[in-house]
Design goal:
This protein is mostly beta strands and 190 residues long. It has two domains: 85 residues, no CATH class; 94 residues, no CATH class. It contains two helices and ten strands. A hairpin with a 4-residue loop joins strand 6 and strand 7. The chain is extended. This is FAD dependent oxidoreductase domain-containing protein. InterPro entries: FAD/NAD-bd_sf.
């Protein structure tokens, strides 16, 4: 919040809205590869009441976290045949969960990874642990939606999988394997 307050004191205006596009204009020039040189100083936004408007800016910086790839696509990155904008910005949202456990292993503990792609690692010295599962290509999160897919850690459709539940307690690390068969909803503990 301190960065935002300081920026506002220096004249930055924050607008809470959705970016839906940019007005990109040709300059009439070409670069050394023969590509049209384009410029952009207008963003099209949709406000919370649904109204759309164009906002003019002097310099734009794409710093939208997991959604920077989407904004770069709006600017044409990844859609050109050559030049700088022929390369997409490979940033996609990920689902990472933070678990807090004061009695867990120390912050020097290694990254623990199982064969299904589930991992957990310590985050700092405050008893926090990050855990997630590496998505397969077909499970990549949709960058067009801000909704969290709560089923991300649940089982894949119609296949037998193994989910590792990692519990960290006073006795140390406890790993429980849970086998789930979706087609008939059979469950068994191993």
């Amino acid at each position: 919040m301190a960065f935002k307050a300081k920026a506002q004191s220096l004249g930055v205006n924050y607008i809470k809205s959705e970016i839906i596009g940019f007005n990109i204009k040709n300059t009439g020039q070409t670069d050394s590869n023969g590509n049209d040189v384009q410029t952009c100083n207008e963003v099209i936004i949709r406000e919370s009441d649904g109204t759309e408007k164009c906002v003019t800016f002097g310099t734009g910086i794409v710093c939208c976290g997991a959604y920077s790839g989407l904004i770069a696509r709006y600017l044409g990155y990844g859609s050109h045949k050559s030049g700088v904008r022929s390369v997409a910005l490979p940033i996609e949202p990920r689902y990472v969960y933070v678990i807090h456990c004061n009695d867990g292993p120390n912050s020097e503990s290694p990254l623990m990874f199982d064969t299904s792609g589930v991992y957990i690692r310590p985050e700092g010295k405050g008893g926090n642990y990050l855990c997630s599962r590496c998505p397969e290509e077909s499970e990549e999160p949709n960058v067009d939606s801000l909704e969290v897919d709560e089923s991300f850690f649940e089982c894949k459709s119609s296949v037998e999988i193994l989910i590792m539940t990692i519990s960290i307690g006073a006795q140390g690390l406890v790993v429980t394997a849970f086998k789930w068969h979706r087609q008939s909803d059979r469950q068994s503990w191993n």
